[in-house]
């Protein structure tokens, strides 16, 4: 029987960027936007707050875009300060590269295993799905989902009892499957 696990975000990730005021490197995104119009050109920023001093920094979303080239739905979501849009934009590689930021997902996600009935089975066949592109170590997911320590997960992998088409060392942010024999 195939079990489905889901890695889902619980809040917006921490933005890693240097603060110009206090030299801290951690910002909190609260989902607020600022939109500025200069004649027919729009600028839009996602506002983030420094965790140390509270200074506001702006992450560029739109820069000198003609007002007719911006989708009205996107503009409405920015005016409504949609936190879902903030999450989408933080994960957009173009926005991250333009603003020279990285994301820290520590304590910003959870694993939903759908219950504990799989813990008694001899063979566990699991499909792991990511609701957002959250880089997580698969060994940590397997250990958390099966109620094991990391060393208890490494042992079956060395013995060939933990099998996956995906590489289980390092970090993954895409869907994968694995089978664990006890």
Description:
With 182 residues, this protein is an alpha+beta fold. 24% of the residues lie in helices and 37% in strands. It has a five-stranded mixed sheet with strand order 7-1-8-10-9. The mean pLDDT is 91. 19% of the residues are buried. It is elongated, with a radius of gyration of 21 Å. The chain has helices at residues 72-79, 83-91, 93-99, 138-146, 150-159; strands at residues 2-9, 14-16, 26-38, 41-50, 56-66, 102-104, 109-112, 123-130, 162-163, 176-181. The protein contains five helices and ten strands.
- Give the termini distance in whole angstroms: 15 Å
Content-based structural category: alpha+beta
Q: Approximately what portion of the residues adopt beta-strand conformation?
A: 35-45%
Annotation, overall tally of beta strands: 10
The major sheet is characterized as: 5 strands, mixed
Number of helices: 5
Overall shape: it is elongated
Report helical residue fraction. 10-25%
Rg over C-alpha atoms, rounded to the nearest angstrom: 21 Å
Q: What is the H/E order?
A: EEEEEHHHEEEHHEE
The residue-averaged pLDDT reads: 91
